[in-house]
Amino acid sequence: MKPTLLILAAGIGSRYGGVKQMDKIGPSGESIIDYSVYDAIRAGFGKVVFVLNPNIIDDFKAIYEPRLKGRIETEYILQELHNIPEGIAFNPERIKPWGTGHAVLVAKNYINEPFCVINADDFYGRHAFDLISEFLSGMENADPKYAMVGYKLKNTLSDHGTVSRGVCSAEDGLLTDVIERTSIQRKNGNVVFDDEGHDQVIDENSVVSMNFWGFTPKYFEQSERDFITFINENANQLKAEFYIPSVVNNLIESGDATCSVLTSNDQWFGVTYQEDKPVTIEKISQLVEEGIYPESLWG
User: Fold this and answer.
1) Alpha-carbon distance values, 125 to 37, 94, 224, 272 (Å)
2) Each residue of 52-105: pLDDT tens digit?
3) Which CATH number fits the domain 4-289, given the four candidates 3.30.565.10, 3.90.550.10, 3.40.190.10, 3.30.870.10?
C-alpha cells in the first residue's frame, strides 16, 4: 500500500504578507508545494491530501489540479473553525482554526493508510521523503509507531528574522520530547533563543522538528482524544492552538506510541519572510543546475 502525503496549507502567512503556498520560486513557475509533491511521487507516495482554508481553495485547485492530474491521486479538504466534536461550544469571537493538530484531524476520513504530514511552505529536500517512505512502508494501519524527519538547527535558520523550532531530544533513535523554542537567531557568532526575555545559547547542531511527521491511521484515534480534552479546556480562548508535537509528546510520555527520529542532512529552507523568497529562488536554481530537479517539474 502506497503512503499518503498530507500537506497543511491552510495558513495565510501573516509574517510573509500573502498566500505564500502558491508563490512561484521554480524556473518554470513552480511553488515549494510542487517540489514536495514531486519528491513524494518519486519516493513512492500514491495520494496527496491538501488541507486548505475557504479563502484559497478555489484558486489552489485551479493551479494544482491540472498539474497533478494523472500523476497522483488528490483530495482537497477544508480546515474550518467549526470542525470540532459535536456538543462543544466555543467563543463566538474566535476567528482562527485550532492549529496543526486540528488540521491533521480534519483529514481522518480521507486517509486509510500510513501517511506523512508536512507544511506547505517548507522545502524539505528529496532525502526526507525517501527516509519517511521507507519507514512507512513497514507499518500497518494500527501500529502506534511513528517517525519524524529532523534537521540540524543550523540548516533551518532564516537570515531575515527569528524563527521558532521544536528542539528534539532522543534516546536510542527514539524521540523523548520536543521543546518549542522561540525567537531563534544567529547573534554574535552564536545561535540563541529567547528565554523569558534573555538570550540563551543553543547548539547549532541540535536536531529540530520542521513538522515533517510519519503516522499510521492509529494516530487519528489517539490525537482525537487529546483534541477533545484540549477543546473542552480552551473553547473560550481566542488564540489557543492544538499542535502536533504536543500530541506526540503525550503519546511518548504515556507509552502509547514511539516516534523514531530520522535525521536529514539536507538544508531546509522556506519562505517565512518575504525577504526569504530571493534566497529560496536561488537555492532552487542551484538544485536544478546540479540535476536534482528538472527545469520544469511537470513539463
Assistant:
1) 11, 36, 30, 17
2) 988 888 888 999 999 999 999 999 999 987 888 777 788 888 888 889 999 999
3) 3.90.550.10
